[in-house]
Amino acid sequence: KKELLNSGYPRDHNVTIIESNFLTIDFSDADIIYLPYTTFASEMMNNISRMCRKLKPGSRIITLSKPMPNFVDSTCSVVFKVYNKVDWLMTWGLEATYYNIKTQSKK
């Protein structure tokens, strides 16, 4: 886990940027998560979606290429809604960027 601080960002904001392995860190208190998962397999995306069940409703997840998948099984369900989609020019070309919001979760 490595905390990154942007020295140009005003200190009166309560912002912490963390660079870490998403599969091993507790991110349940996060308000915004960025996932550039352009090459993640469906199984990995479903696992990440399941891990997001602890996020509070209203948490936002920004993803590249694909929206967050909803996750439902016998133990829990996690539901996301895309509230915006923008195509941004990246070094490799236009890339769909999805702005997802967690709407509900049941254990």
Describe, in plain words, how this protein is organized in 3D.
The protein is mostly beta strands and 107 residues long. 9% of the residues lie in helices and 42% in strands. The protein contains one helix and seven strands. The strands form two sheets. Strands 3-4-7-6-5 form a five-stranded mixed sheet. It has a two-stranded antiparallel sheet with strand order 1-2. The two termini are 27 Å apart. The N terminus is likely disordered.
Helices and strands, with pairings:
Blueprint: E1 2-4, E2 17-19, E3 32-35, H1 42-51, E4 60-64, E5 71-72, E6 77-90, E7 93-106
Number of strands: 7
Helix content: under 10%
Secondary-structure element order, as H and E? EEEHEEEE
How would you state the average pLDDT, rounded?
Answer: 80
Radius of gyration: 15 Å
The secondary-structure class comes to mainly beta
* Largest pleated sheet: 5 strands, mixed
Which residue ranges are poorly predicted, with pLDDT under 50 across at least 5 consecutive positions?
1-7
Strand numbers in spatial order across the main sheet: 3-4-7-6-5
Identify the overall geometry. Answer: globular
Distance between the termini: 27 Å
Number of helices: 1
Give the key terms.
disordered N terminus; single chain; globular; two-stranded antiparallel sheet; 107 residues; mainly beta
Structure summary:
By secondary structure, the protein is mainly beta. It contains 1 helix and 7 strands. The protein has one helix at residues 42-51; strands at residues 2-4, 17-19, 32-35, 60-64, 71-72, 77-90, 93-106.
